[in-house]
Amino acid sequence: MRGFRTLVSLGTVLAGLAAAGPAPARDLTVVSWGGTYQDAQRKIYFAPFSQASGRKVLDESWDGGFGVIQAKGKAGNPNWDVVQVEAEELALGCADGLYEKLDWGKLGGKDAFIPSAVSECGVGAIVWSTALSYDADRLKTAPTSWADFWDVKTFPGKRGLRRGPKYALEFALMADGVKPEEVYTVLGTPAGIDRAFRKLDELKPNIVWWESGAQPLSLLSSGEVVMTAAYNGRISGLNRAEKKNFKVVWPGSIYAVDSWVILKGAENRQAGQDFIAFASKPENQAKLPEYIAYGLPNKAAGALVPAAYAKELPTDPANTAGAIPINADFWVDNTEELTKRFNAWLAK
Amino acid sequence: MSGLRQRLVALALVLPLLLFLGVFFAWPLVTMSAEAIPQSVVARGLPRTAAAAAAWDRTTPPTEAMREALVADLRAAPDDQALAGVVQTLNSAKSGYRTLIARTVAALRGGEGPADLAAIDRRWADPAFWRPIAAETANTRPDANLLAALDLRRDEDGTIRSLPEGASANRRILVRTFVIAGLVTLACLLIGLPYAMLMASLEGWRRQVLLAAVLLPLWTSLLVRTAAWFILLQDNGPVNGLLRAVGIGALPLIFNRTGVVVAMTHVLLPFMVLPIYSVLLGIPRNLMQAAGSMGAHPIRAFVEVLLPLSARGIVAGALLVFMAAIGYYITPALIGGPQDQMISSIIAFYALQTANWGMASALGLVLLAITIVLYAVYHRLSVDEPGRA
Amino acid sequence: MTDPFIRLDRVSKAFGGVTVVDDLDLTIGRGEFVSLLGPSGSGKTTILMMLAGFESPTAGTVSLDGARIDRLPPHRRNMGVVFQSYALFPHRTVAENVAFPLRMRGMARPEVAGRVARALDMVQLGAFADRKPAQLSGGQQQRVALARALVFEPAVVLMDEPLGALDKQLREQMQLDIRDIHRRLGLTIVFVTHDQGEALTMSDRVAVFNKGRIEQIATPREIYDHPRTRFVAEFLGETNLIDGVVDRAGAGTATIRVADGTAIEAATHHALASGEAVTVSLRPERLRLSPSAEAPNALPAAVADSVYHGDHIRVRIDAPTGSLIARTPRGAPEWDRGARTFATFAPGDCWVLPR
């Protein structure tokens, strides 16, 4: 649903800019990604926290985008308290001072979490992965790598990729033989970027570009594409709900951490700290994989997840082999320039 | 006395309208225009560096004074938010400042006295990372965003040049936006004009059914209609199923311009049909009979009589459709291919993703300016024919 | 009628099951001015529409000069049409409107200009050539419409209540103008109207329509003086109708016994049988009010009402046969209410209708 609501978000931003007057006391407002994921969060985090603390929780959803966070910050008295953000929004907002500092004492210390989930301004909520996916009922031979993704002779048909430079450039380099762990080193040089675009040139006629997370799944279901990059959480969800046989190719996948943050100056920042602490407890986090296959940043939570669910998670040791974390710093620096270039490349 | 009172009452009556226009029309326009013009944020955020860099030749390594001034400026910043604009502007000029400044600020925090910038991040040793600072503090160019919106930039010597090929595609996308809007307008006209004529020629329930058919889409959310077309136009969707069944075979209808034009035409058709229909209703039916009795073939009568008389409705409908189509975003994003993205998606990218409000506003202004020019051209054309119905 | 120029042969027209024109025959001669007269819904306009080609008959044939035209589209019929609402093209000037039919015929520009100028002069609008229709008065607009319908010298000019929207004075002026043009150009004109005065003053012949049929078609004089049916007698002008039974039928005259037993002597133009039920039509202007009963027919009556109309006086009297209207000329003796009088008339003044 992400791309779908962007227009709505724009409206929210403008409304936020316009609303300058004092607001009456609000309920604790928690903002997340919507869809089945937020349904699960409501069940295991929002409602239980509300019951335990006696505070009402109002949950909203958004589509991401640093512009939205910045507009909320500029408005002075943000109408959101706790927001789940992606790694880049965490880095950008933290550098620009748009988030409150977290009280790590409440969270049980930084050591309780995997390193990539720890920051001054945010704590990891989930670990999710963007990976090559295909419908095993349609493809006789299983693709195993991004090189296979680029191989239209062996696997004829269209491929789905997220529209935008992020992921597309990384996957292109891997398909071109760059080792996963070296991808960002290569991408850090102008020659590396040129190389990635050249590799994308090869596949361009066969790519269907998607924007919202639900699209690659419907593309796969309808047979519009034979394989696609997709978010792993949605794959296992769909397999369970619609008895599909979609497979995830873990090597070469890129995982990322989404974090909880508190907007600077938010009215309910204290309650927000309590909420984040509640949602970060291992026993609470461990309930999530039953609903959606996202990895858990709290180290202790991983051990509590039943084995049947654990093997679908990006954090399962079998799945991290050959996978790399997203380099948020690279994208924080280069999103604007590379998106411009990507759009120009698309328009050619 | 009563005259003044009357005037006050009249003013009070139009006040809500004036407020509405001011708040929802003038104010956003003014703020958008202001946003498009870059403020000298870098010079204000880094005043010492600006002074020190004024004398620098921009090719040799940065001077000791500049480095000291930058350290002092970064330490003097009251909080991170104060630097946000500086970082945003510099990163737009050259990728890398986001992490560079964040890392440097973190390293300088709490410390005092001279610091070795190159040791904190070796990018500081590269003159390439000093040049944007010097350039942005030396003279802020008010037209930088507007030029960038058109894939142009000013060189150091002030001449305007195109951005290198492949760096940005705003111009191409702007042209494409107008081409798609034009195609949609044409398609709406080709369908809408006969439809409106049919509707105007019928009476009773038949007319009501046609009217409902054209109004119904207006009462459905844009998203729902777009999603419906997404399903209909798929390679394995109902439309292609039908085409296969009648032996034509599947056509590529989705992720290309055909799909975008089909879906947008459906969404915007009411805006073409309704103005034409209302104008047609005012045309006496016996004009066509009169033309026929004077020896005009129906086609000739249509061209000579009905078409010129319905021109006002056609132009109004075409303007409505065209203007609405220019701003389309969701439909091309979902139904279109990479060659069909319109300028709104670029504006949304700058506004929502990178928080580059300057570029978003500049693109918006360019769009507005082109639209106003087109409207002026239309106005001139319509004034050239005085008395046309 | 010289030769049948326009011929409608057993024409019917139904709209959605409702018969508007019912098995109708009509022939019109070349150069003739024929009015189609009748109440609204009587089918007269539908006939005109079928002549123009805007409607096609459900059954029967329409022919012009011996050739069938009922399948011909309007633009190939060469008929000028003048509409009640003028139907001028609002986006064209007066001259352009008049030039339209000539341009449609591919006429050369200079010739078009000449003809347009002549046509506009004919309707005295030469000075208004460059105006738009909206800048003209109703009467001027209708004259433009007339010029436009005549300029291409059509075989037939069809007029659909062309003067209906004009005020009385203008209407009478235009009636004269149209009649004048008809005479000068020798046009064949079919003129639809519901105004019986208009039909009587302008036409060579009048066809009276009722319920999709022609009740009578004849010269104005014939149709006024000798209506064939009660409907025609009532529709054209005012008349007093007295029901009765033929008492004695002779050659050229008959004695009709009316309701109260009074006998009326009437001249007849067709044979009547004794005992036949008839209606006597007596035009108000034929009735004379007289103090004495010295006349072939004299009905004793009392004056009920007397109204001054300027050019005549309208007197309502109560006679044994019922209420009657008499129209007495200006200057005739005035009658007070309640005065006793005799309504007198000659046998030739009344007209016997079948009942």
TrEMBL record, chain A:
Gene3D superfamilies named in the record: Periplasmic binding protein-like II (3.40.190.10)
Record keywords, A-Z: Periplasm, Signal
Pfam family, one: SBP_bac_8
Superkingdom field: Bacteria
Signal peptide: 1-25
Protein name, per record: ABC transporter substrate-binding protein
Lineage, uppermost ranks: Bacteria, Pseudomonadati, Pseudomonadota, Alphaproteobacteria, Hyphomicrobiales
From TrEMBL, chain B:
UniProt subcellular location: Cell membrane
Keyword Repeat in annotation: no
Transmembrane helix keyword on record: yes
Pfam families in the record: BPD_transp_1 (PF00528)
One Gene Ontology cellular component: plasma membrane
Residues of the ABC transmembrane type-1 domain: 174-378
Keywords: Cell membrane, Membrane, Transmembrane, Transmembrane helix, Transport
Superkingdom, natural source: Bacteria
Transmembrane segments: 173-197, 209-232, 260-284, 305-330, 357-378
Membrane association type: Multi-pass membrane protein
UniProt similarity note: Belongs to the binding-protein-dependent transport system permease family. CysTW subfamily.
Protein's name in the database: ABC transporter permease
Organism: Methylobacterium nonmethylotrophicum
From TrEMBL, chain C:
GO cellular component: ATP-binding cassette (ABC) transporter complex
Highest taxon in the source lineage: Bacteria
Entry keyword set: ATP-binding, Cell membrane, Membrane, Nucleotide-binding, Translocase, Transport
Domain annotation ABC transporter: ranges: 6-236
GO MF, any single term: ABC-type putrescine transporter activity
Reactions accelerated catalytically: ATP + H2O + polyamine-[polyamine-binding protein]Side 1 = ADP + phosphate + polyamineSide 2 + [polyamine-binding protein]Side 1
InterPro entries (alphabetical): AAA+_ATPase, ABC_SmlMolc_Importer, ABC_transporter-like_ATP-bd, ABC_transporter-like_CS, Mo/tungstate-bd_C_term_dom, P-loop_NTPase, PotA-like, PotA_ATP-bd
E.C. code: 7.6.2.11
SUPFAM superfamilies cross-referenced by the UniProt entry: MOP-like, P-loop containing nucleoside triphosphate hydrolases
Keyword Translocase: yes
Record function comment: Part of the ABC transporter complex PotABCD involved in spermidine/putrescine import. Responsible for energy coupling to the transport system.
Recorded family membership: Belongs to the ABC transporter superfamily. Spermidine/putrescine importer (TC 3.A.1.11.1) family.
Assembly notes: The complex is composed of two ATP-binding proteins (PotA), two transmembrane proteins (PotB and PotC) and a solute-binding protein (PotD).
Protein name: Spermidine/putrescine import ATP-binding protein PotA
Top-level taxonomy: Bacteria, Pseudomonadati, Pseudomonadota, Alphaproteobacteria, Hyphomicrobiales
Gene (name only): potA
